[in-house]
Design a protein that fits this description.
The chain is built from 11 helices and 11 strands. With about 325 residues, the protein is α/β, with parallel strands linked by helices. It starts with a strand and ends with a helix.
């Protein structure tokens, strides 16, 4: 293999640049040329390519976002769109691809391989940490620490004003951020999509806290929780429980940005390098990941059909520690 392409797709995640850097420099180390594909699958269809060298990835390991830009592509969902992308790839002399992103990126890479048989290795880059075949995804640790830092600051205000704060974090279909930053931030209640939630139960827990003279509380809710998110929960609580001055905070996209943590940089570097080595070894249509801190290979067919199972026992831990 003499030339490969690398792209980022879907939502950005801190550490993507570190992964791009590792792909480029590992490939160059093995005398493989690298082409950067701008804007993910959209750029692939449009032929928005640029050659990458060692200098092109200098001083990016500490930067959030992605220097290759990213997008979501409706055109790539069609056979015609994928065929056009394949034609562009062949014209550029690209023999293999490294795809960095989440479940949508995985699905696109798998469909592309099935239709066009272009060798492709996927790397897990998403703050949601919900991809099958890896214990951690690139960007999750940074997003988690961003959320915990925000919750710590919010608790200062909650303690000062006898307030209940409902903090909404990202996670439309997965509650890993909510669960773990809830534990780390000392939340009294955590609401996640993987578990049936009931605002009446939340109010009962708040009432128990009031009886124990709690003067403030924090509730962490994932945006995709069936309760409807922070605003809906706040409205329901205000209607039935007036002990606290209730406020809500939606952290939103601040969780996607920022300087990646050491853990995310190291993980991204290892996975980026492993993706190039997998292509070199003739592997294809699979995702690289970490299982028990070791590089793991999972077929994209399996990775796109499954999601990581949450350990819901940790929700019991939240209740125990809330006291």
């Amino acid at each position: 293999m003499k030339r490969i392409g690398v792209y980022t797709s879907g939502g950005d995640a801190p550490g993507m640049n570190a992964c791009i850097r590792a792909v480029v420099r590992t490939a160059i180390y093995h005398d493989i040329e690298v082409v950067g594909i701008q804007r993910g699958y959209e750029g692939m269809i449009d032929g928005d390519f640029r050659k990458m060298d060692r200098h092109s990835v200098s001083n990016i390991i500490q930067r959030g976002g992605t220097i290759l830009k990213t997008s979501r592509s409706e055109r790539f969902r069609t056979e015609e769109g994928r065929q056009r992308a394949y034609n562009r790839i062949k014209e550029a002399g690209i023999e293999g691809l490294v795809a960095i992103g989440g479940d949508g990126t995985y699905a696109g890479a798998h469909a592309f391989y099935q239709q066009c048989k272009i060798p492709v290795i996927a790397v897990p880059g998403t703050i949601d940490n919900d991809l099958y075949g890896t214990d951690y995804t690139i960007g999750y640790d940074t997003a988690l620490n961003t959320a915990v830092e925000a919750i710590d600051k919010i608790r200062n205000t909650a303690d000062s004003h006898n307030r209940l704060f409902i903090v909404e974090v990202m996670g439309r279909e997965a509650g890993y951020i909510a669960l773990n930053c809830g534990i780390a931030g000392g939340a009294e209640v955590v609401l996640v999509p993987e578990n049936d939630s009931n605002v009446d139960d939340v109010i009962q827990k708040l009432e128990e806290g009031r009886k124990h003279n709690k003067t403030s509380s924090i509730i962490v809710v994932a945006e995709g929780d069936q309760s409807g998110g922070a605003i809906a929960v706040a409205n329901q609580i205000n209607e039935q429980f007036d002990y606290y001055d209730t406020r809500f905070v939606i952290l939103g996209h601040v969780q996607r940005g920022g300087v990646p943590t050491c853990r995310d940089r190291v993980m991204a570097s290892r996975l980026g390098s492993a993706s190039v080595e997998a292509l070199q070894d003739g592997l294809s249509n699979l995702a690289v990941g970490f299982i028990n801190n070791r590089i793991n290979h999972t077929s994209l067919a399996k990775a796109t059909k499954n999601h990581r199972e949450m350990d819901t026992n940790l929700l019991e831990l939240v209740e125990i520690l809330a006291g």
